[in-house]
Amino acid sequence: MERDKSLSYERKYTNGEITVYWKQDACIHASYCYRELIEVFDPGRRPWVDMKGAPVERIIETVNLCPTEALTWKWNDDEKNNSVQPDQTNHIKFRRPELMKQDPANMKENPVSVKVMVDGPIVVKGSFTLDNSGRKKEIIESLISICRCGASNHQPFCDGQHRKIGFTG
Amino acid sequence: MEEKRENRTEALIEVIEAGPLKITGNFIFKDLKKGEETSSGEIWLCRCGKSANKPYCDGAHNK
Fold first, then answer.
1. Does the pTM of the predicted model rise above 0.95?
2. Is B19 helix (H, G, I), strand (E, B) or coil?
3. Which residues of A touch B33 (CB under 8 A)?
4. Phi/psi of residue A95, each to 5°?
């Protein structure tokens, strides 16, 4: 059987009520999670996710802020998963259809959004042309994260260094 | 990433070598720290971390 590469770096965390999935290679270091809820999501701690750090509702709210599918969640009670609404943006039903045995359709075209994260990178989301020092690439309904602190080892993209060097701006 | 010509958008994101990030065309720009929001036009964003006018470039990378 073919191995599903999209699941290769996945970790799961649960508190009995919900399960949070962490897919490291999808993270663009937008940093919403630890800014919002350091009690649960602390990149300096191992394991970095502590499901006992906050009430379920707060964890769900915070996971829903993740602009990628690096963080997703589901109810452990499958009945509840069936009635989840689209405003629960990072529920696996909407972000990780491969985990829901569902049709991966429902991808809608979004306008290009450019967000400057607090003390973090520039996150560009949507469909656009990326000209990386002369090398052009069409980005279709995806997102990239551009370093703003100057310290990334993966220029021009963010690799999370801003947190280590204490970048502000 | 597949190429879909019919959906080609008008936003252009340019990484200027040893310089800023230039954004032109149709986009919605938001600075989450200042809460400012602009749409479309042309903006130059600092990539070196040294600008005194962040998030915008002020040419500090050349100094």
1. no
2. coil
3. 116, 118-119
4. -100, -25
